[in-house]
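Tokenised fold entry reproduced for absentees:

. . .
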Amino acid sequence: MLVIKDISEIIQRLFTGVCDIIEYTEYIDDFGITQLDKKVVLSDIPCRVSFSKIKPARKGKATDHITQDATLFISKDIQIKNGSIIKITQNQKVYFYQKTGESADYTSHKEIAMVLKNDYV
């Protein structure tokens, strides 16, 4: 018989992806100029992405511009700073998103609004 201790266990069973959290950190280069560097601060965190708005591509100057809003479902214990890049692997695909606001914190999980990060390398 399966015994569930709390609702967070049920929700986390729905997590079909994993994510890496990437933050920008400042450093001073050899010329005294402040630069930004990317650093993975958390990796392989179980999660799930829900695609809330799927929009058609817009024509740009050189290529189509693709936009997409999504919600990240993740453990309530994970802290992600605004502006962080979130690399998500789900359904054999890799996506890069940027956190765009405060999370919705529940007793069982956290929901984070994200936008597709087209220019992330």
